[in-house]
Predict the structure.
Amino acid sequence: MDKTILFSPLASMDTYLINNCGEIINSWNSQFRGGMTAYLDKDGNLYRGGKLNSSVFLAGGLGGVIEKFSWDGDLIWSYALANDSLHLHHDFYVMENENLLLIAWEFIDELKLGQLGRTGIVPGQKFYSERIIEIDPSKDFEVVWQWRAIDHCFQGIDSNIPNYMDRKDALRKLDINLTRSDVGPFLDWLHINSVELDSENNTLLLSCNAIDELVVIEKTNDSQTASSDQGGAYAYGGDLLFRWGRAANFLDENLPKMLFKQHDINIVDDNNGNFAFSVFN
């Protein structure tokens, strides 16, 4: 809709569509407080994130449930992913086929962290990795595709661990030893807060807030390819195709940082047919 604003206050169970004069065009009521994101589709249906509290996932941006409402406010469906292993957070993306791409924190225990080469593990501190999950609501919310960040991590410290790489060779990998905090109950490694599908190139744009980077990965045909570093249309599986924002994450050179805890990445038209995006920095 033109010249309208959709917003879902975090402390409220209501979502509003207003015009530029602040007049309410429509509103929807949920049993859940706002979970960071809401979208309208072309038919006027509302997709709304809601918040489910967790004793494991304590970082900002908590979600846990997504609901779809009709224009008239009737609940069409509700989907929750909020347990001690995985928890929805921040953003989601509604695809043209009405499947959804979701961001979920994944809890990684201390044993697994050690096997991945994470150093300086703080006992008792919860470590969150990330998954991008595609669900099909028409098939009882079946998970039809997923990408796991830890499948594409490296470390440059212990050469006896299989994911060891020299930093200069790890352009397409994520350093498991990025993001540090010796205090606090949790450590949110990447803190992906935005997901956007580039359907023309079949890629996903991910905003990795904690490491000050935008990364691009292929939306591969299957999860097996997404878990590897080979195959797919670009021949890199689920490894990074592009990254921008903080070169010090993968280079030793002291290059200037371009992103500073960014949010809300969107593909935009630059009128010249080039890849372009906007970001709140």
